Amino acid sequence: MELRARGPCSLDIGCPVSPISEQVMISFQVFYEGRVQGVGFRFTVRHIAKGFDVTGWVRNLPDGRVELQVTGDENEVRAFLDQVAQSELHSLIRKQTENKLNEPVAARSFEIRYD
After folding, report:
1. Whole-model pTM?
2. Which of 1, 66, 79, 100 could pair with 36 as two cysteines, CB 3.0-4.6 Å apart?
3. Is 25-112 CATH 3.40.50.10230?
């Protein structure tokens, strides 16, 4: 059997999944309203983020909301935000507002900010 290069596959034996998957990077700013301060919200979000390939930060705001900014592959970011919404934090969130950002979030990991 002769093996030769063809398309994105390196061998002429068929490729069930393309080895080249295009990653679409996205960034979101999310505001959480409800009983989201003084209940471990930021620490839980940071813990959830450790299970995903995302960078960003979460912080308390003076008006009682929590702000989260996150960057990563579109699938990872959406899965991360879904996990936050479906976690034990769900009962504390009254309202969640998402805004797509044009620039990536300046962060090396996912952290809690105190500013």
Report:
1. 0.79
2. 66
3. no
